[in-house]
Design brief:
Rossmann fold, 3-stranded parallel sheet, 340 residues
């Protein structure tokens, strides 16, 4: 601990000599490094936000780059990102973060997810160090353009942040306008190994689905930080949703052949869909910048008559702009084919 304090003291002196002041999301001035080349995201949404702004400025990850909720590989992501060390997370579910370990990577700034249920705990932990932190709003879909601008300015990537923000605003307005007069589609979000874990209707985990013109059949108060509320099949049968969105491929494969689930309206009409996860989940876990594409995919599923955009072209645009990847027609087919 004494060694850590010495490191913090040196870092604080160096930081105050080269600093700039930016206003945070509430308009309050925050002192940040003038030049930022080593940044850490306190949560996966912030890590992925950093990736699309400038992956070369990332010092590490919360969890392994590839995990059960995505399909991260060199097809869509750069090698440096995939080889970044796992520093840890404040959120559990993996390697817990150690402040002394974090300091060894010499971060100049930590981006903190303002809407996170653990934001106060995370902020207090970071306050124990000399690392400046910056709150980024990222829960609501409408927050994303602002998040790109704030984070871009904070890490010295304002031009890139503005490009992503402007594109996101255009897409968000397009989706919002398309579904604004449509009757909300009753959906169920199937999670867990049996598909009987789900989210409450106001959870940030279903933000994209709600925005795209859906209405969650499971109305409740979230019982824990992680969500994943358990229900019985009898409850689901009573809900009898019009659409089912499935998080995991293995579960999706089980559900579409399960005689019991086939009694549900969604399966009878063929409206059960698997969330795309390349390179990151398009919808949730974590709710990342991929939601800019995810809300279009969802609007296409929920309201195909109202949302008439060319999803192939929109997917190609998104991957080019956000991930610097030129998709082939075959890749687009693989990304969207199971859900067309």
């Amino acid at each position: 601990m004494k060694h850590l304090i010495q490191i913090l003291s040196i870092a604080l002196i160096a930081f105050t000599l080269h600093a700039k002041t930016l206003n945070d999301m509430d308009g309050h001035p925050v002192i940040l490094p003038d030049q930022t080349d080593h940044v850490f995201g306190s949560s996966p949404p912030m890590n992925y936000l950093l990736y699309t702004l400038n992956p070369d400025k990332m010092i590490g990850l919360n969890f392994k780059a590839r995990n059960p909720n995505n399909s991260a590989d060199e097809q869509f992501l750069n090698k440096r990102f995939l080889s970044l060390p796992v520093i840890g997370s404040f959120h559990g579910g993996g390697q817990s973060i150690n402040l002394e370990t974090l300091m060894k990577y010499k971060p100049q700034l930590v981006l903190v997810w303002q809407d996170d249920m653990l934001v106060q705990t995370v902020a207090k932990e970071i306050e124990k160090t000399a690392i400046p932190s910056y709150l980024i709003p990222f829960r609501h879909i409408n927050d994303m353009p602002r998040a790109f601008r704030l984070a871009g300015n904070a890490i010295g990537e304002s031009k890139r942040g503005e490009i992503l923000a402007a594109y996101s605003e255009k897409i968000i307005k397009d989706v919002q306008k398309s579904v604004s007069k449509a009757k909300p589609v009753r959906y169920y979000y199937a999670e867990g190994l049996d598909g009987l874990s789900t989210e409450c209707d106001s959870s940030f985990h279903v933000e994209a689905m709600n925005f795209a013109g859906g209405r969650n059949v499971h109305s409740c108060q979230q019982s824990g930080i992680l969500g994943l509320e358990k229900i019985s099949f009898e409850t689901l049968l009573a809900y009898n949703p019009d659409v089912i969105i499935v998080q995991n491929r293995a579960v999706y494969n089980d559900l579409i052949t399960d005689p019991m689930w086939k009694s549900l309206r969604a399966l009878k009409s063929g409206r059960i869909y698997l969330v795309p996860v390349q390179p990151f989940n398009w919808v949730d876990r974590p709710p990342s910048f991929m939601r800019v594409l995810g809300i279009q995919w969802l609007a296409h599923l929920f309201h195909p008559k109202e949302f008439k955009a060319d999803l192939n072209q929109r997917t190609k645009e998104f991957y080019d702009l956000f991930l610097h990847v030129k998709l082939s027609d075959e890749q687009i087919k693989n990304l969207l084919g199971a859900n067309r």
